[in-house]
Design goal:
Layout: H1 15-28, H2 36-49, E1 56-59, H3 62-75, E2 86-91, H4 96-104, E3 108-112, H5 123-129, E4 136-140, H6 152-162, E5 165-166, E6 168-169, E7 184-187, E8 200-203, H7 207-216, H8 238-249, H9 251-268, E9 275-278, E10 290-294, H10 302-308, H11 336-344, E11 345-348, H12 356-371
Parallel strand pairs: 2-3, 2-4, 4-5, 6-7
Antiparallel strand pairs: 1-8, 7-8, 9-10, 10-11
Helix pairs in contact: 1-8, 2-8, 3-4, 3-7, 9-12
Length: 373
């Protein structure tokens, strides 16, 4: 079925915008292994977040970055492996990549429910769950839901008080990501607001930790060719760096596009008090995802009915990671908020090129479909 309004239509820098950086690759003949364009990406990201370039490392994708950060952070906190598995707490309301990274880092997942208002883990929720973990907890992965800002100072405080390693999954939070001692990992996937097709980066004020992450994405090498630790190959290529640099050049215009889309949706749904949106009116951040939620569960067949009228939607996180077939066996708290959100949330079309008239029409179709079911 061809949809008039697909849920996403990624828009990356044009070939003309990328070409000057590709010519630099031709000139340098450097293609991977932390080349000059990767170094420039790291310098520009460091400037954006107000830190030294040594506080940033690029990665091939955010999942690899999370895996490496967990390996680096949890390594020093683990007991003897003969004592049983080391546990990592993570929200049940997240994309499955978060859990993939926990497993790839050699940790056992423990799923925790999220806060109803923020859709995210809270430090208080994590602390209350610690006594229920069926083994020794060593790490926690808070997730920024669809780019919503997070309180890094609060997570750093939790880490200092409990000894837990904290790695923030900030995949969608480029616009308002914050920096602390605990590492935050960001995505540059094609569906994100700053898009390079693939790629990502990790930021922390702890430069020793960034070096450990860098070692974990480079076969365990750091300054020589001797593998010093368990590792993966998770480096960003010069080609993805070229696209990232072009995307950074265009960031002010890109941010305005997504900001305008969010405002148009809020205006279009402003008369319907049954519905709230993320990003919401009190939130000042750019997201490439517009999430609709209402207090009542969305009616059966709602997604299909919208598709029949040309509007694409997506249950971006499905029923949460506990409902993924591969991961139903993992331990968890009771998950009433995650289950509640899964029945009430859906992603609406969000991409450059949507006009205010398009969004008003989408909102009218959504409202009409809800009234008719």
């Amino acid at each position: 079925m061809t949809l008039r309004f697909p849920v996403a239509r990624p828009s990356l820098p044009t070939a003309d915008a990328i070409l000057p950086y590709l010519r630099q690759i031709d000139e340098y003949q450097y293609y991977s292994n932390f080349g000059p364009l990767v170094g420039e990406v790291e310098r520009r990201l460091a400037e954006r977040y107000g830190v030294d370039p040594a506080c940033v490392t690029t990665v091939s994708n955010a999942t690899a970055g999370l895996t490496a950060a967990l390996q680096a952070e949890a390594k020093a906190r683990r007991r003897n492996v003969n004592d049983g598995p080391a546990y990592c707490l993570l929200p049940a309301w997240t994309f499955v990549a978060t859990l993939h990274a926990v497993l790839a880092a050699g940790l056992e997942p423990y799923l925790v429910d999220v806060d109803e208002d923020s859709w995210a883990l809270t430090p208080q929720g994590v602390e209350s769950a610690l006594e229920r973990v069926p083994g020794e907890p060593v790490a926690v992965v808070p997730v920024s839901p669809f780019g919503r800002p997070y309180d890094m100072a609060a997570w750093d405080d939790l880490s200092h008080r409990t000894g837990l390693a904290v790695v923030v999954d900030a995949a969608a939070a480029f616009d308002k990501g914050s920096v602390g001692q605990s590492p935050a990992v960001f995505s540059l996937h094609a569906t994100k607001v700053l898009a390079a097709g693939e790629g990502g980066f990790a930021v922390s004020t702890d430069t020793d930790l960034i070096n450990e992450i860098r070692k974990c994405i480079n076969f365990g090498f750091l300054g020589d060719r001797v593998a010093q630790s368990r590792a993966i190959n998770g480096k960003m290529s010069e080609y993805h760096a070229a696209v990232t640099l072009a995307a950074l050049d265009a960031w002010p215009q890109t941010r305005k596009v997504f900001d305008d889309i969010a405002h148009a949706y809020r205006d279009s749904f402003s008369q319907d008090n049954r519905i709230r949106l993320l990003p919401g009116g009190a939130d000042d951040y750019a997201s490439s995802t517009v999430m609709l939620m209402r207090d009542e569960a969305l009616p059966e067949g709602f997604d299909e009915a919208l598709a029949d009228r040309g509007v694409g939607t997506r249950r971006w996180w499905g029923g949460g990671v506990a409902k993924q077939v591969a991961y139903r066996r993992f331990s968890s708290d009771l998950l009433p908020v995650t289950d509640w959100l899964a029945r009430r949330c859906i992603g609406l079309p969000c991409y450059p090129g949507l006009s205010r008239d398009d969004i008003a029409e989408i909102a009218a179709i959504v409202g009409d479909t809800l009234r008719g079911r």
